[in-house]
Amino acid sequence: MSHIMRFISAALLLSMAGWLWPTEATAIRIKEIATFEGVRVNQIIGYGLVVGLNGTGDKDQTGFTRQSLSNLLKRMDITVAPTALKVKNVAAVMVTADLPPFVKPGTKIDILVSSLGDATSLQGGTLLITSLKGMDDQVYAMAQGPLSVGGFQITGAAASVQKNHPTVGRIVQGATVEREVPIRWQGKETLTIKLGQPDFTTAARVAEAVNDALPGSAARPQDASTIELTVPVNYRDNLAILVANLENLDVVPDAVGKVIIDERTGTVVVGENVKLSTVAVAHGNLSVQIREGFDVDQPGPFSQGQTAITPNTDINLEEGADQVLLIERSTNINDVVKALNAIGVTPRDLIMIFQAIKAAGALHGELEII
Q: Which of 71, 114, 63 is nearest to 87 (CA)?
């Protein structure tokens, strides 16, 4: 029954591929495949304390938590030796956040709070004010607030129950931006577009689309991932309008044909540009069943014999009828899918078939195993 279900699943997957995968390349906006140099997200990080935990904080032997709590109390004119503190309701945490480009002081951003010590849960905790710094050691935001933890942990004397990850929490709009990341933007004479997936053909198409839409911009590909353009004079003091126009231009991206195989899960993904030369594929099943048993031989009545146990092996071999399919030279992925679907292959069979076709030199594209 499991073999039949795998066969049905593979057949449905391959038959659906004919209308899930487009037969013609689709135009994509530049916004989806590229970014503009200088417009990027920056990571910021800070060290802080979460208080108000219900006995799920760091253990007393976590020295840096006790030291941090002692320093915090000292700044509030309360002097307590670190060794005298109990920190079961306190947890040391690392606070991280993404600082979007062009964000202004006063803007609220989300933060992620992760336990640094041996706390078992941050549920119900409150993050105390924490400065978030960049790689230049400048403070860019200040964070504080109650945590939202998407999990819990309940521990008893002999068992415990846990859902999700209770030592990581979020604070929505939990940090306030204090400093803007300096970006030289207005007045630039050149602008650089960076492709997310480097490809010479796509870079040339982007440059062609920009030149068609903005005569005089002189866009030119520098390499497989970089397109440089001269900013028209009338846009140099208003680059925001120029970028808005450029990122909405439609481009048909190109990519290398690939077959991605995950042998752990039996997943096979075939790219649109994969082609097959004429090749014959034979697909059949061989089933061997071996049953081991024992026969008991009893001696005849009033005889001097003894009971004997003899092994009994039953071997049943079934071989399915081989299916030989001739796949003509393919022009698109639909032909490949229909041909393989015709012989009723499962995902596991697809893995071996594609490896064999690649070894035969009939698969034109990259075969990548992850």
A: 63
For 132, 282, 285, 326, the CA distances from 323, given in Å and listed in that order, are 64, 5, 10, 10
Is pLDDT at 5 greater than 50 in this prediction?
A: no
Token code pair at residue 110: 């989300």
Task: Please state whether beta strands 323-327 and 267-270 pair in parallel, antiparallel, or not at all (unpaired).
Answer: unpaired
* Helix pair 347-359, 2-20: axis angle to 10 deg: 60
Q: Are 226 and 203 in contact (CB under 8 A)?
A: yes
Task: Kindly report, residue by residue over 58-68, the tens digit of the pLDDT.
Answer: 998 888 999 99
Q: Where are the alpha helices (DSSP H) in the chain?
A: 2-20, 30-33, 63-75, 200-213, 239-247, 333-342, 347-359
Across 3-12, 14-23, 85-94, the highest mean pLDDT is recorded for 85-94
CA 224/CA 256 separation, integer angstroms? 13
| CA 303 – CA 345 distance, rounded (Å) | 60
Residue 223 has pLDDT above 80, yes or no: yes
CA distances from 354 to 58, 146, 172 (A): 52, 53, 47
Tell me the domains of the chain and their CATH numbers.
Answer: 2-25+257-369 (no CATH), 28-38+184-251 (3.30.1360), 42-177 (no CATH)
Contacts of 287 (CB under 8 A, 6+ apart): 317, 318, 319, 320
Which residue is associated with the tokens 């049905």? Answer: 8
Q: What is the Cα–Cα distance from 116 to 114, expressed in whole angstroms?
A: 6
Residue type, 321: A
Alpha-carbon span 44 to 132, nearest angstrom: 6
Residue 175, class by beta-carbon neighbours within 10 Å (0-12 exposed, 13-18 middle, 19+ buried)? buried
Q: Within a 10 A sphere around the Cβ of 219, how many other Cβ atoms?
A: 21
